[in-house]
Specification:
With 495 residues, the chain is α/β, with parallel strands linked by helices. It has helices at 54-71, 76-92, 94-105, 109-132, 167-178, 193-205, 219-227, 240-252, 275-287, 307-318, 332-347, 381-384, 400-409, 423-430, 468-474; strands at residues 16-18, 20-22, 25-27, 34-39, 44-50, 137-141, 144-152, 155-159, 182-186, 212-214, 231-237, 256-260, 265-269, 297-303, 351-354, 371-374, 391-397, 412-413, 415-419, 437-440, 456-457, 460-461, 476-484.
Length: 495
């Protein structure tokens, strides 16, 4: 995709073919294969994407390796300067990119815009690495100095999901490229067009050809990235099932790996929760991005008598307008999966108090409305498996400890939230919950830069977080240098 996206509405727009970007140019997949790309809002094919394999990945690695030899010698502050320029370009093209993401992903325009704004925030952190990326040093003994240099790994890769095509890419790219590496990005084949636009923006910002490459495709491309011996590190964001396989496959080749997987996030409502704050926050958490995000609320643990708040949540969910407040589901397969969980819960005795099945949204696309399942139990798949849709299951419990026991028995460890007006209750939960990201009256507790994003348990495979300073450490390797220049008159064992 080399042309700008000119549409500034939800009107269906054809976009052509999403090609690979290798060495500073768009090229088709070597095998010539392509796959249809749908606009979820319209359920119509908006273009095609190249389907790559090992030969395409190898071509990208060769271009990346050639470019990285010179890039690693560029001072870190000059590398970071690219991201100052990229930020200006992203701000300039914010509206275009927001509409493009809306069309390829199904988000509302407002959600697309918010995701680009978060992309820009990640770029800003990359700008700071020109100063923050300095290595540590210390005179450890008389005449002896130790320092740490953060050296690039070489050629590295990232595999991004469909739900945030630009934002997740920018979780990885600033730290990796400012760190002196060349990067190979594999976007989801469901949303390939924004990565092509990003490639052109990097080129306009002055990034040398070969340092950012895009390989489109499916499982064959992912496996080739995990297998290639000259790719030294890979980050992945997606489902737990796939993330676990990618982590094992890449680690077997000696790569540094960090794979973020799925989630089953729990919101706990205490009886003292602020009614006006809690209800709209819960609705936004489980309906935002149509629930297609790893930070979405999935299970609501209602502690004691919180019926008034639940009434407000139900009323708020019924007011959500499809196509305006909430976007489309990514494809028919996802719709079928989500509806399957709702149907199963109803058969098992859950009460469907807000029913999003058979919802009709604008433009004839893939739609499921906000859905609330009440009186759920922990033997139902809706309360234990990731649904990845606008569905929340209410489980009623008597005590906060009972709620914590349910959350901590969950094999995932991505995010959790407590709604309360009590600092003591908040501290009790945040210090005991089995989750890497915890909110207090915040249903989508995404850490903002420079704080790192990452869960625990089956929500993450690998060490550290993908964003923030942890990301800098992930994409670089520390070289420890110890120096001594003269014999000292009084020495220690080191001197």
């Amino acid at each position: 995709m080399s042309k700008p996206f000119s549409t500034r509405s939800y009107a269906f727009t054809e976009q052509g073919e999403a090609l690979n970007w290798i060495g500073g140019a768009f090229v088709p997949a070597i095998g010539g294969g392509t796959l249809a790309v749908e606009n979820p809002r319209h359920a119509k094919v908006m273009g095609r994407v190249a389907m790559s394999g090992p030969a395409d990945v190898d071509a990208a690695v060769k271009a990346a390796a050639a470019a990285q030899k010179a890039w690693r010698l560029v001072p870190v502050r000059e590398r970071a300067d690219i991201f100052y320029k990229l930020k200006v370009l992203l701000q300039r093209d914010l509206e275009e990119l927001a509409w493009l993401i809306s069309h390829e992903n199904g988000k509302t325009y407002a959600e697309g815009k918010a995701s680009v704004e978060k992309t820009i925030e990640c770029v800003e952190f990359g700008c700071s690495l020109g100063n923050m990326g300095a290595g540590e040093q210390l005179d450890v003994s008389r005449g002896v100095n130790c320092r740490v240099d953060h050296e690039p790994l070489g050629v590295v890769g990232g595999i991004a999901p469909f739900n945030f095509p630009l934002m997740v890419a920018m979780w990885m790219l600033p730290q990796a490229i400012v760190g002196g590496n060349a990067f190979i990005m594999k976007p989801s084949e469901l949303v390939p067009f924004s990565s092509g636009r990003l490639a052109l923006l990097f080129k306009e910002a002055g990034l040398p050809d070969g340092l950012f490459n895009v390989i489109n495709g499916g499982a064959d491309a992912v496996n080739a990235i995990a297998d290639h011996p000259d790719i030294k590190a890979v980050a992945f964001v997606g489902s737990t099932r796939v993330g676990k396989m990618v982590y094992a496959r890449g680690s077997a080749t000696g790569k540094t790996m960090l794979c973020l997987g799925g989630a089953k996030n729990h919101l706990m409502i205490a009886p003292d929760a602020d009614r006006a704050l809690t209800a709209p926050n819960v609705v936004a958490s489980f309906t935002g991005c149509a629930g297609q995000r790893c930070m979405a609320a999935s299970v609501l643990l209602a502690v004691g008598n919180v019926d008034a708040i639940l009434t407000d949540i139900i009323a708020g969910a019924k007011k959500v307008r499809l196509g305006e407040d909430m976007g489309a589901i990514i494809n028919q397969a996802a719709m079928d999966r989500i509806n399957g969980y709702i149907n199963d819960a109803e058969k098992r005795g859950a009460k469907v108090v807000v029913d999003g099945r058979n919802a009709v949204g604008p433009d004839g696309g893939y739609w499921i409305g906000p859905t609330i399942l009440d009186h759920c139990t922990m033997d139902m798949p809706c309360t234990t498996e990731e649904i990845f849709g606008p569905v929340i299951s209410i489980v009623r419990v008597k005590t906060l400890d009972e709620a914590l026991a349910i959350e901590n028995a969950n094999p995932y460890g991505n995010a959790a939230c407590i709604y309360t007006s009590s600092g003591a209750v908040a501290n009790y939960v945040t210090s005991r919950v089995e989750a890497g990201m915890v909110g207090v009256n915040v249903g989508v507790p995404v850490p903002r830069e420079p704080f790192g994003f990452g869960g625990w348990n089956l929500s993450k495979f690998g060490a550290g977080n993908i964003t923030g300073y942890d990301g800098w450490r992930f994409w670089t390797r520390p070289r420890k240098v110890t120096t001594k220049w003269a014999v000292q008159s009084d020495t220690t064992w080191m001197g």
